[in-house]
């Protein structure tokens, strides 16, 4: 790899654990920073806290497949997708590339060829390291920029001190996000806490609650709430949040 191109950070999504370990061992030996998971759900959760530049994807995965992940990542600036799959039909290759993959390689793949493709897309994209989301400790240090959640008044205030009233369920939602300190929390856990474990369609009901909360924040405060949707997983509060 040429010296003027920054070595990209890698993620591998592969449900064959032995193959995943082989990828990671080889690429780390080559000097890459890399992590791997075996499902889409685990990938989205890990990506939130460990940003990458290049994602190496299998197509056949439990839950969302590699095509779905590629489609999602195609909406994210700066992330390159390399599909590595045993599906060699033309239709499969076309589907992968149309979903947003930058390369479609066939298994079994020689590791040197995989590395060469990583280098090629790095040169084409001129990849640079993207800033990661602030850690919990960094968020806590940014006190002047902190949002505040009041248990007594059941309000949420922005860093300027402007606030709005929360419903009981909105407060539970915000309190759960406060307790995770910026880490993503699954819809299942949030839904069970707010609506009860036996309630049907909690994910859909939660999405409605969050949409209303965001609209309320935009209307009252004139700004978007830093409530981030973690695709196919749940929600996280991405700014510093203190409880008053």
UniProtKB/TrEMBL annotation:
Q: Which residues bind DNA?
A: 138-239
Alphabetical list of PROSITE patterns matching this protein: OMPR_PHOB, RESPONSE_REGULATORY
Q: Does the keyword Amino-acid biosynthesis apply?
A: no
Give the UniProt keywords, A-Z: DNA-binding, Phosphoprotein, Transcription, Transcription regulation, Two-component regulatory system
The organism's superkingdom is given as Bacteria
Q: Does the keyword field hold DNA-binding?
A: yes
Q: For this UniProt entry, which residues form the secretion signal?
A: none
User: What are the residue boundaries of the Response regulatory domain, all occurrences included?
Assistant: 9-122
User: What sequence ranges are listed for the domain OmpR/PhoB-type?
Assistant: 138-239
Q: What is this protein called?
A: DNA-binding response OmpR family regulator
